[in-house]
Design goal:
Radius of gyration: 42 Å
Number of helices: 15
Structural class: mainly alpha
Largest sheet: 4 strands, mixed
Shape: elongated
Strand order of the largest sheet: 3-2-1-4
Oligomer: single chain
Helix content: 55-70%
Distance between the termini: 47 Å
């Protein structure tokens, strides 16, 4: 019973597949405080940077619209052109600020969790309309945490606002002694920088909220041991399906291997169980290559193809087993078998020349030796 409970406890970190599935469903870490902070601070910086430009353009629009002749006022076509020109000028005045806000609104969410568009997250879920579930959410631990966070945010913003006002207190009190034009400009300057400093307090909130959101996201994605086992079964497939796939892979590999047998220079056999096919071209190869190998039915098939293509078959049981167990398909033979294989290949090449009428018939080498560590027993 204890083992079952431990298997169901969500104590394991989320697997890559679990994280990917969560992203497909629109579940990624997001911090509204980070987005709010990015938009507020970027907007105010944009206002400080482009505010003078925007103000001058808007002032020009006011002057343009107040300096109308009587004829234009009563001319419908002229007033429409006046409105279009004013709208276009206002748009040009505000585009830099709007561009900064749009970039901040996009960059804020992307900074945590990356860019994601998921159709599943915008699909309606009727479970969210359940009033009982809604009440549970309202009085849950998460709601209490959010309430504490909200109170903390208010306290931080109020505290920074108080410190900012204290910092600008002498300048605010001195506004009454300035001229009207200088006072308005100075007051605007104080207001913008005060709001910027107060908005920077949201960075403190975001610095706390971002790690919390990452922790909560990882906590919600945690899996039990049983979840991981089920995922592995789903991803790898059922045992019978995996067995069938492996069988098909072996069949494909065997067909490819058999297609290489006609290229072999010699087939070394056991001849009861084992067969290996070797190829060696002294002009292009440093060492002989194993083209095919097999036991029982596959070994018989290799010998059958060899007879069809008139490839020399050499019966050397110990060497055949050594090559079979120590060499992979399309790989060179190990160094310990160089001498034994060289004796066989020399005999095959001499025999080939003899059959072409060049040279004497060679004697089969009787002293083929295989290192002790490469001697394998006959298959029973």
């Amino acid at each position: 019973m204890a083992d079952e409970d431990s298997a169901q406890e969500k104590t394991e970190e989320a697997t890559p597949r679990r994280v990917e599935k969560a992203r497909e469903e629109g579940q990624i870490p997001r911090s509204r405080d980070l987005t709010t902070s990015a938009v507020l601070i970027s907007g105010l910086i944009g206002l400080i940077s482009f505010g003078g430009y925007a103000a001058n353009r808007l002032l020009a629009i006011l002057q343009f619209n107040f300096a109308l002749s009587r004829e234009k006022i009563f001319d419908t076509q002229s007033m429409f052109a006046q409105l279009a020109a004013s709208f276009f000028d206002a748009l040009l005045a505000l585009i830099p600020l709007f561009a900064v806000l749009v970039v901040a609104a996009i960059a804020g969410p992307i900074a945590l969790g990356g860019f994601l568009f998921s159709s599943k997250s915008i699909m309606p879920k009727f479970s969210r309309m359940d009033p009982i579930a809604g009440l549970k959410r309202m009085f849950s631990v998460k709601s209490l945490v959010e309430l504490v966070k909200s109170i903390g945010k208010v306290l931080v913003v109020v505290g920074v606002a108080f410190l900012t006002l204290k910092m600008f207190e002498p300048q605010i009190l001195g506004l009454g002694q300035e001229s009207l034009e200088n006072g308005i400009s100075h007051a605007l300057h104080i207001t913008l920088w005060s709001v910027l400093l107060i908005s920077c307090s949201t960075l403190l909130i975001a610095a706390v909220d971002v790690p919390f959101q990452l922790w909560e996201y990882a906590k919600n994605l945690k899996m039990s041991r049983q979840d991981i086992k089920d995922e592995m079964k789903d991803s790898e497939g059922k045992p019978e399906v995996k067995g069938r796939i492996r069988q098909m892979q072996r069949e494909i590999a065997n067909r490819r291997m058999m297609s290489n047998v006609p290229k072999a220079d010699v087939i070394i056999t056991n001849p009861t169980h084992f067969s290996v096919a070797l190829r060696y071209n002294p002009d292009t190869m440093a060492t002989p290559i194993l083209l095919a190998k097999g036991v029982d039915e596959i070994a018989m098939k290799i010998r059958e193809i060899a007879r069809e293509y008139k490839i020399e078959q050499i019966r050397t049981p110990v060497l055949a087993r050594a090559i079979y167990y120590t060499t992979e398909i399309d790989k060179p033979i190990p160094q310990g078998l160089y001498l034994a294989v060289a004796q066989v290949l020399a005999y095959v090449f001499q025999l080939r020349n003899f059959r072409k009428g060049r040279g004497d018939r060679p004697d089969f080498p009787s002293n083929i030796k295989v290192p002790k560590e490469m001697v394998f027993p006959e298959k029973s």
